[in-house]
Amino acid sequence: MKSLSEIETTAKRASKAAGFSWGEAEEIGKCIRQLEMFGLPGVKHLNSYFNDKKKNTYENLSSINQLNSSSSNPYCPIILGISFLDQLKIVENYEKIYFSNIAYPIIFLSFLSRSSEISGKKINVKFDEKEIFLNLNVNIYSNFLNLKFPKNSKNLEINFIDNKDNFNEDEWTSLYKLSENTFVEETDSLKKGAAGAGLTDND
Amino acid sequence: MKVQLRDPNTIMKLSRLGSFHQSKLSFLRSFLNEFKDWEYKRDLFNLNRFGYGEAVYSFKKDKRTYSLVCFANKIKDDERSDRVIATKWDAAFTLHDGVPTQKDIDRLKNEVPRQEVGRLSFKELTLSRANKSLRVFNHVVERLSEGKQPDLELLSNVGYLYRTTAVYGSGKFGLADRFRIKNREEINGPFRLEMMLVYLVRQFTFDQVNHVAHHKNPSKSVVLDRKICKNLGIGNSTGLGMAPFIVNHPTLLNNWVMSREIALKKIREIKIVKKKDSVLFIDCLKKSLTNITSWNTDSDYQQIKIKNLLKDIKKFIHFIDNNFDFEDEYPFNQIYLWLEEEACEECIEYVVSIMMEPYNEITNPLVSQMSSEEDKYFTIPTSRTIKDLINIIEKKYSNILKINFDKKQNIQNFWFISKNKEEPRLADRFEEGGSELEQPLAIARDVKKLYKKLLVTKNNSTVAEFLSKNSELRHIVRRVFIVEKFPYSEIQDNTIGKNIMPIDMLRLKLSFFGALKFDPRSDKWLRICMFQGAPLPDELKNYDEQWVYRSSN
């Protein structure tokens, strides 16, 4: 079994050899390591993308808007991913972001996962009937388990999810009430003697 | 009185970094301190009469066990090489996480002796190999088998029975990734498991030499005297493989140097020094003279440094004995200021290390701050402005900006990875091919390139905008933001100039390992000795912490 350290180093060097700058290659190494750690086929898709890159042309999108469409060649998932990371402060304010025609969406996904961690917001990604939930770069959920990621995605939609509770107020109140059963009711004497500070702090 | 931390522009110059010495913060000493109350055991010793076979040594505490698995093999004399191109070694080792089963040992027997071409698993933590100093090993076997102890002068000249030629960890060749073990309290310090491997290998070398001598002449042989064992270490040959590490791990480098600098600052700020502390300092200082006078090297470069060190240490001792009173206020600050005025870099850093000896309360908390969560600082803050970036560069790289990289001599060399061994190398850009595959280790040159480009970019544009048009400078933009937070993260020197001494980079790292007696064999590789004078494993529960300065070598 290859260690994650070997995967990161090899992905970085291969990316440089495939024509990316050292700084970009460092980003790619980190992302592929992360995908493999989540059990997703990062090495497989990066390898396949670099092979395709020799024959095909890909678009470099360096400025991201709400609607992004490449009518001719698919977007390079790496330049797109790095641009997304770099422009995160702007794009996280969009309610939804749409892309059409992205090559190797799983590679782009790894950059989105890092974006989720950096922005502190969960991200929902939909493409080609598939739904993926990126949880602060801690884990990735999806509604498909066979891990067959396509080589190309026609339409991809990104949605930053506002930080909010996954439960309603009643559920919280009920649980909190139960937790109160671990507290001791304070008598007058306990109020005076059991706390570090005095009864007033106006001295 | 508040003392300022030393200026990175001075401390992070290669000549200064190449003058660093081991100290209480060094990893082999902090390893011994951490593992002193662990249970040491030799679990298996299955060698034939010539010393070939397997052995297992372990450290155990509560439910945790670390086991060194050793494989000693017969090799021909003409197959023995310390160079990284070697494919066979006298012995090969791995540190196994837990107690190895027979199945593990059988698996490892097929992989460990093959080193870089073998495959390890997540159950193995470090990997190494070593060659005998044939001259010393054979001499010791001969003498012990005759019932005599070996010639101390020969042993003193060499200092070890075996030397390692590489120690690998952190995910190399399938070894466990650091993230799997990083939360273990006992290894909360850099390279702790590498140190454990080397330390246990040292014991294996003693056991093996005794074993071979015994089988050579069972009725007459004696074992190697414990005092002699203690004064032997493990040699190590280190080449350029180590140099890029300190460039590629800027926050880690910062945390090593920062710990040293904080220790020095705190010691200089001590107003009244206790008598017992000044006595310990002077004792270590005077006894350490043996370390200097027994420091053998054929390197002219190092001989001059040793000569100057010895001269300045003697001058310093004279000053302390005749013109200095430890009862004055802030004595260590006075000492430091005297050294800055009167001593060479080698001597300044030598004494700085010794100053730490009395102060466990200062050094111990720093040891746990010498690792780094590097990923935390990887993301570039791209919403910041070009003006911010320019300000950081002008403040943090002021000396670097003075270098003229249009001059051939300042870009003479380039770093590359050799295809044959996947190891870093340095070559002349104008005489050798391959510079188009240069590694991103010319930080000074690239910082200057970035700076020039920034000066013609709008001040209020963002880093994100800049990077979208200048992706070739992305790696260096990342570093600039790292050095903003970590002042000692960058070598403040040119790493590709004509006069670069790569061994300065090796020496910096090896000093933090705790190596003694650096012996440069060229400008690109050197030999060192580790654990010479250190307690033996069965003495760890109660050992002299200042053993470094009190060994008889």
Reconstruct the topology from this structure.
The complex is a heterodimer of chains A (203) and B (553).
Chain A (H helix, E strand, L loop, with lengths): L3 H14 L4 H16 L4 H14 L11 E3 L7 H10 L1 H4 L4 E8 L1 H15 L2 E6 L2 E6 L3 E4 L9 E10 L7 H11 L8 H6 L10
Parallel strand pairs in A: 1-2
Antiparallel strand pairs in A: 2-6, 3-4, 3-6, 4-5
Chain B lengths: L7 H4 L2 H4 L9 H9 L3 E9 L5 E9 L2 E9 L18 E7 L4 H10 L12 E9 L1 H12 L6 H7 L1 E9 L23 H25 L9 H5 L2 E6 L4 H6 L1 H19 L6 H13 L1 H5 L6 H24 L7 H12 L2 H11 L4 H8 L18 H11 L16 E5 L6 E5 L14 H13 L7 H7 L4 H12 L16 H12 L2 E5 L5 E5 L16 H4 L3
Parallel strand pairs in B: 6-7
Antiparallel strand pairs in B: 1-2, 2-3, 3-4, 4-5, 5-6, 7-11, 8-9, 10-11
Helix pairs in contact in B: 3-7, 5-7, 10-16, 13-15, 14-15, 17-18, 17-20
Give structural notes:
The complex is a heterodimer of chains A (203) and B (553). With 203 residues, chain A is of the alpha+beta class. Chain A is 44% helix and 18% strand. Chain A has helices at 4-17, 22-37, 42-55, 77-86, 88-91, 105-119, 169-179, 188-193; strands at residues 67-69, 96-103, 122-127, 130-135, 139-142, 152-161. Chain A has a 6-stranded mixed sheet, covered by helices on one side. In chain A, β4 (130-135) and β5 form a beta hairpin. The longest helix of chain A is centred in the first third of the chain and has 16 residues, at 22-37. In chain A, 35% of the residues are buried. Chain B has 553 residues and is α+β, with helices and mostly antiparallel strands. Chain B contains 22 helices and 11 strands. Chain B has helices at residues 8-11, 14-17, 27-35, 102-111, 134-145, 152-158, 192-216, 226-230, 243-248, 250-268, 275-287, 289-293, 300-323, 331-342, 345-355, 360-367, 386-396, 443-455, 463-469, 474-485, 502-513, 547-550; strands spanning 39-47, 53-61, 64-72, 91-97, 124-132, 160-168, 233-238, 413-417, 424-428, 516-520, 526-530. In chain B, the strands form 2 sheets. In chain B, strands 1-2-3-4-5-6-7-11-10 form a 9-stranded mixed sheet, sandwiched between helices. In chain B, strands 8-9 form a two-stranded antiparallel ribbon. The longest helix of chain B has 25 residues, at 192-216. The interface between A and B is medium-sized, with 26 and 33 residues.
